[in-house]
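Aim 2 progress update. The chain analyzed this quarter is reproduced below.
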Amino acid sequence: MRGRRLVVKQSAIHGRGVFAKRPVGEGDEVIEYRGQVITWQEASRRYEESDQELGHTFFFDIDDGLVIDGGVGGNDSRWINHSCEPNCEFEVQGRRVVVRALRDIARGEELLLDYRLELDDQDDQGHYACRCGAPSCRRSMAAPS
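Predicted C-alpha cells:
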C-alpha cells in the first residue's frame, strides 16, 4: 500500500492514538514497532529517570532480556492505545515486532492492542488502569490472571 495509511491524533481513550486513514484488511501487517533495542537494566534506568506519568512507557519486551524503547528512534506505533477488545495484535519476530490487524479496520477507526502487561507483585496496579470503555473491560492493562 502506497502512502501513509495511519495518522496520530487525539484519542478518547488516552492522549494520542493511531487511526486508520484507509481501510485495513484482517491479517494485514499494519506497522512495525520501532525504537532502540536496549537491555531491561537500561530500560529500568531510563524509566526511573523519566518525567513520564507513572506507568507510562514506550518499552516493548522482546525476550532474552531485551526491550525496544519506542521513545528513542520510535515511530507512530508507540501511540497505539490499549483496549480489552483489540482490533490488532503484536507479533514478535525475533527482534522485530509488527502490529497485525485481527479484523478489518475501517477508515477513521482507532488501532487498539491488548497490552497484556506482565506486572510484578510490587507494582502499583493503579498506574495501569484501563480506560478503553469496552463492554468486556478488565479495568487493567495487565494480563488476565
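The helical segments are 40-49. The chain has a mean pLDDT of 89. These observations will guide the mutagenesis experiments scheduled for the next reporting period.
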